[in-house]
Amino acid sequence: MVPTGCARRPPHGGFPRFAGAYVEHARLGRLAALVRAGAFPLITLTGRSGVGKSRLAVEVAGRVHERFPGGAVFVDLGQKPDPGVALESVRRALRMDDTCGTWSGLVRRLRARRTLVVADRLDQRADVAAALVEAAALAPGTVVMATCVLPLPEPVVPRFESAG
User: Fold this and answer.
1) Of the residues 17, 41, 68, 160, which has the fewest C-beta atoms closer than 10 A?
2) 100 lies in some domain
3) What is residue 118's three-state secondary structure?
């Protein structure tokens, strides 16, 4: 078992094949295509506990990780007591050295290599959510796929309005 916050390579190494309980396979394919395209810096999977959001995120990451030269990493942000511990979890997952242990270092790392960050339970860390979304927005092609029980706070989620 991999300790919480450490880098995990997405499926299918060690994970069973996806059974499709949370979402039918056609929608899974559309979600994978959306992540693969990298057009949105943040994609959230929101729903009550236990419905399979994390498992779905891991399955999608397994299907698209080859499109991200920086890899796909899984970070469990639930029950991290302070921003420093949460940052350390993200830093370790991205295999950043100690000299890059700041949020500006995170932005530099994500700009250098297009990365998929699966941020599990991101709604429990609004401070980390804001920083991750900002970092991903500054690093074209990088995607944060977040699992949340509650919607992220309004300032975190960018608003897109259609013209007309």
Assistant:
1) 160
2) yes
3) strand
Are the CB atoms for 109 and 97 separated by under 8 Å?
Answer: no
Q: CATH no. for residue 72?
A: 3.40.50.300
Question: Looking at residue 22, what DSSP letter applies?
Answer: S
**Residue 136 · residue 115 · CB < 8 Å:** no
Q: Rounded mean pLDDT of 82-101?
A: 73
Distance CA 110, CA 138 (A): 8
Structure tokens at 45: 């999977």
Assigned token pair, 76: 């469990």
| Stretch (H or E) spanning 72 | strand 72-76
Q: Please, where are the H alpha helices in 39-82?
A: 53-64
The pLDDT of residue 95 = 80
Residue 44 CA to residue 121 CA, distance in Å, equals 10
Tell me which residue has tokens 């499926």.
11
**Residue 96 pLDDT grade (very low, low, confident, very high; cuts 50, 70, 90):** confident
Overall number of domains in the chain: 1
What range defines the domain where residue 113 resides? 25-148
Compute the average pLDDT of residues 65-78: 88
pTM: 0.76
Asked whether residue 118 is assigned to any structural domain, the reply reads yes
Report the SS3 class of residue 116.
strand
In a domain, 157, yes or no: no
pLDDT of residue 61: 92
